[in-house]
Amino acid sequence: MRALAPLAAGLILANASLALGAAGDQPPAAKQGMSQRMMMDMDTDKDGAVTREEFLAAHSRADVHFAELDKNKDGAITRDEWLAEPAGTSRAERFKQLDTNGDGRISHEELEARRNARFDAMDNDHDGKLTAAEMRSARDSVMRQHSQVPNPR
């Protein structure tokens, strides 16, 4: 649970596309099934679309990870707290990206802004809802980006 993949999915997804991208090594049919399952899980009113509220609620697990990382319980994650977690792909660089105001801490507000920006980027038609097609498109975009990044091992 404290591994980077669930942490990244919770904190950065705020970024559903990263969670969808976790199916990277699976065949296309399995990837589509995973995005469909995630869509069904997030679509709590079962209307075939994910609203911003449903998207943000589905990522509430990030608050649990946030609390786990915030060792001194001051309401923010410091660079030292972030880097103390198991190493992954450029954690220091990821911290810089999430610390948007550059104060050396990741606040709940910074994560919430990231979640909202991610939702907006995924909502291609800007109707305030994510369709399965928009979620697949976001997943595919993340997969293309990750395939271009060399493995740090």
Summarize the SSE layout with pairings:
Layout: H1 4-11, H2 16-21, H3 28-42, E1 50-51, H4 52-58, H5 61-69, E2 76-78, H6 79-83, H7 91-98, E3 105-107, H8 108-122, E4 129-130, H9 132-147
Helix pairs in contact: 1-5, 3-9
Entry keywords:
153 residues; mainly alpha; two-stranded antiparallel sheet; 9 helices; 4 strands; globular; disordered N terminus
Description:
The chain has helices spanning 4-11, 16-21, 28-42, 52-58, 61-69, 79-83, 91-98, 108-122, 132-147, and strands spanning 50-51, 76-78, 105-107, 129-130. The protein has 153 residues and is mainly α. It has one domain (4-147). The strands form 2 sheets. Strands 1-4 form a two-stranded antiparallel ribbon. A two-stranded antiparallel ribbon has the order 2-3. Helix 1 (4-11) crosses helix 5 (61-69) and helix 3 crosses helix 9. The longest helix has 16 residues, at 132-147. It is globular.
